[in-house]
């Protein structure tokens, strides 16, 4: 089981996160939460990475708060400074794992939903990151300085996504291509949250739906990608 740790942000302030350590790590990843906060599901994602050989750190962007209510999650997300979260909390987590020299010493960044959007922003603000995997989330295009992304990245998009419509993906991918980013985008005939095993329709959000088959394929691709670059 993982543990809560403290790490320093680039501005010197303390931040906290959930650390899941691999027994014989090949590398490390920073896992960015969905809008629900650091809950059992995202801690489980960190454990999954640890089981696959990647020590994983989930920075606590909401400072201890989490929720199962969509309205409250929206409120927490709206109150989050995305630029600060990416440039301070996520980058601080990357720097913490880098300094620990885990396995190869390389560190990847991955995130889901809101965390997917933050993964893209973090890759523009954390030059120490060695690779990125985005899961069904992207920030407004004007905030993406693609020229600053030096790490290779892949993304998993849901073609039936309501919160992040697939139509918004094309201009982002064009921007990444124009900037010369090493990038591959995968598209799945699925709904938002298809890799979140707790996203079972009406119980959470009508627009999210877990899909075991697509989830497994996306996870396989993610592990292969991180295995290659970390």
Question: What would the keywords be for this entry?
Answer:
230 residues; 6 helices; alpha/beta; globular; 8-stranded mixed sheet
Question: What do these coordinates show?
Answer:
Helices cover 35% and strands 21% of the residues. The protein has 230 residues and is of the alpha/beta class. It has an 8-stranded mixed beta sheet with strand order 1-2-4-3-5-6-7-8, sandwiched between helices. It starts with a strand and ends with a helix.
Short description:
The chain has an eight-stranded mixed beta sheet with strand order 1-2-4-3-5-6-7-8, with helices on both faces.
Task: Determine the N-to-C terminus distance.
Answer: 23 Å
Radius of gyration: 16 Å
Largest sheet: 8 strands, mixed
Q: Helix- and strand-based class?
A: alpha/beta
Number of helices: 6
Strand arrangement across the biggest beta sheet? 1-2-4-3-5-6-7-8
Order of helices and strands: EEEHEHHEHEEHEH
Helix coverage percent: 25-40%
Report the mean per-residue pLDDT as an integer. Answer: 95
Low-confidence parts lasting 5 or more residues at pLDDT below 50? Answer: none
Q: What gross morphology would you assign? A: globular
For the secondary structure, the number of strands is 8
Task: Indicate the topology.
Blueprint: E1 3-8, E2 14-20, E3 27-32, H1 40-51, E4 54-59, H2 70-78, H3 82-100, E5 107-112, H4 114-125, E6 131-135, E7 153-158, H5 169-178, E8 183-188, H6 212-229
Helix pairs in contact: 3-4
